[in-house]
Write a structure and sequence with these properties.
CATH topology: Rossmann fold
Number of strands: 10
Structural class: alpha/beta
Number of domains: 1
Bound molecules: adenosine-5'-diphosphate, magnesium ion
Number of helices: 8
Shape: globular
Radius of gyration: 18 Å
CATH class: Alpha Beta
Helix content: 25-40%
Mean pLDDT: 92
Strand order of the largest sheet: 6-7-8-3-9-10
Order of helices and strands: EEEHEEHEHHHEHEHEEH
Low-confidence stretches: 230-241
């Protein structure tokens, strides 16, 4: 089956002076449209490097990446920006909201850079989707951490992407709020969005359909959660990939 994300033999090597840092070593990664996958792994294992390459924020040293059927290797930056904008919404641990803009204005910010018109009803829809209908006029400083992350998720959704990539999105949130953010991701996934979530939190990671484990720049495990939760009689099974 062709996937919405098809990455083959991804290598990402950073150079620090004479030292080479192998952040990704030959990673194959395949996600079907509508899937909800999580990625876990120790600090420094390459999770951010992988997500940044999958989202075309960073180019791989070698390897190929097809997003929604488009090969991204060798694309000019302007074309890459288009592929990214049409397909990917990013969510980060630090929210990265503009402090002087309201929730509503932060959410509509990406529209400044795309050719889409500002459409009030679209922004209202997104505010509703992230559960912030009554917070649109608040500044980030007037919001809780969970609400700030909802604004950031709204900003990721405004251009109507196919895929959400989230890098430790609950890393700054308490466990109850983290669970609520995950519920929101699941709700968005039920609406058809493909979700790829990096998290340190095993309880959250296990709520995905598939959980990948990264170690030293390689995928060392893929747990099929649907299979596990449907068969309580079997142990969590490590499927070699
Ligand atoms: N810009 C960079 N320059 C040099 N090394 C980097 C850079 N970014 C990440 N690394 C290194 O690449 C490896 C993977 O990093 P990262 O993907 O951030 O890991 P994780 O997100 O799993 O904690 C680490 O060894 C990290 O130090
Ligand atoms: Mg990271």
């Amino acid at each position: 089956m062709s996937g919405i994300i098809e990455a083959k033999s991804l290598v990402k090597t950073y150079r620090r002076g004479r030292e080479e840092i192998h952040a990704l070593r030959n990673v194959d990664f395949h996600v079907n449209e509508g899937e909800f996958v999580s990625i876990i792994g120790p600090s420094g294992s390459g999770k951010t490097a992988l997500l940044n390459v999958l989202g075309c924020l960073d180019s791989p040293t070698s390897g190929s990446l097809r997003l929604n059927g488009t090969e991204t290797w060798g694309l000019k930056e302007s074309k890459l920006v288009k592929v990214r904008r049409e397909n990917i919404g990013f969510v980060f641990q630090q929210f990265y909201l503009m402090p002087t803009l309201t929730a509503r204005e932060n959410i509509e910010l990406p529209l400044l850079f795309s050719k889409k018109n500002r459409n009030k009803s679209r922004i209202d829809d997104v505010l509703r989707m992230v559960g912030l209908s009554d917070r649109g006029d608040h500044l980030p400083s007037q919001l809780s951490g969970g609400e700030m992350q909802r604004v950031a998720i709204g900003r990721a959704l405004i251009n109507d992407p196919r895929i959400i990539l989230a890098d430790e999105p609950t890393g700054n949130l308490d466990s109850v709020t983290s669970q609520m953010i995950f519920e929101l991701f699941r709700e968005l996934n039920r609406k058809g969005l493909t979700m790829v979530i990096v998290t340190h939190n095993l309880d959250l990671a296990r709520q995905a359909q598939k959980m990948y484990t990264l170690r030293d720049g390689q995928i060392v495990g893929c747990d099929d959660m649907a299979c596990i939760s449907g068969r309580s009689d079997i142990e969590v099974q490590q499927v070699a990939v």
